[in-house]
């Protein structure tokens, strides 16, 4: 499992990724055929798991190599070697990748907007770019876009499209991670209802502005991230059979259980609304627990980082900084930089989502096409 020296980052052939998908994911070819008759509209809210450039636009920087090496062949303002789950889901609907809301250089919002920002959480509320701030940005976009279109502006979204749009939410991981920095396990659990309330408020705000179709991801196995393991895995009794930190994963499961209840509650309360709850936790944990079955090696080790096995994560030498090393084949790794995932892993996550087996109700992603 070799690494290459800093600054050398060979491209992973497309063939390698597609062979993984061909061998292990027979459902994918049937899932990605879009049935949309009009361009789907997607409004996405979240953190680094789905940020396609909002953070880079907001602070005026780009990420350094080897980020983006696999697909884009250069840093693409994403914390990955290639595409994210949201990119693959857009591909499945035959629509362009989402443009960040903060992109001021020739943005195209005809297929929606990405409000997700790296580091975002549900709380604190007024700290950029919390979920509350992201929804506030959406509400401004909601009020301005149709009016500007009437005045001749292009590359925006019309009034009727907001009702037919898909609203995707993937947030909560940073809330749990930050809570563990200074709280006990029981105190973290006590905070979870406040995170859920923020997600509830966000959905209500979008519903009141015409939103009817919601796609809600739960949070992944935080205790399996190489970052957490490298910094905190000191007591073997806290690790499960696959080497993940149980307290972190148990907190994620508690968050997810409450999020699922919220989705059930909102289905009863909101009129003519579809809310799909997606079990991302099970998808990601299955890949880690059964990594070899999917063609992956060292499921708890970062491809790009510093320190070598077992986790290759160093808080002072992150991926791209002086002293980092990077694996030859990202397609063999699940974790890209200790916190974020490789394109190969994201491709599998997306295909599992598209299978509908992890969704409640089990609706195809194509159900959310803007066909009206």
Verbal overview:
This protein is an alpha/beta fold and 372 residues long. The chain has a single domain, classed as Rossmann fold, CATH 3.40.50. It has twelve helices and nine strands. The strands form two sheets. A six-stranded mixed sheet has the order 3-2-4-5-6-9. Helix 5 runs parallel beside helix 8, helix 8 runs parallel beside helix 10 and helix 11 crosses helix 12. The longest helix has 24 residues. The radius of gyration is 20 Å and the shape is globular. The termini are far apart.
Mean pLDDT reading? 91
- Helix fraction, binned, reads 25-40%
- CATH fold type: Rossmann fold
Run of helices and strands: EHHEHHEHHEHHEHHEHEEHE
In the sheet with the most strands, the strands line up as 3-2-4-5-6-9
Strand element count: 9
Distance between the amino and carboxyl termini:
51 Å
Q: What fraction of the residues are assigned to beta strands by DSSP?
A: 5-15%
User: What low-confidence regions span 5 or more consecutive residues with pLDDT below 50?
Assistant: 1-32
CATH class, please? Answer: Alpha Beta
Overall tally of structural domains: 1
What class would the helix/strand composition place it in?
alpha/beta
- Principal-axes geometry comes out as globular
Task: Please identify, by name, the CATH architecture.
Answer: 3-Layer(aba) Sandwich
Count of individual helical segments: 12
- Main pleated sheet: 6 strands, mixed
Radius of gyration over C-alpha positions, nearest whole angstrom:
20 Å
Pfam families: Lipase_GDSL
Transmembrane segments: 9-28
Family: Belongs to the 'GDSL' lipolytic enzyme family.
InterPro entries: GDSL (IPR001087), SGNH_hydro_sf (IPR036514), SGNH_plant_lipase-like (IPR035669)
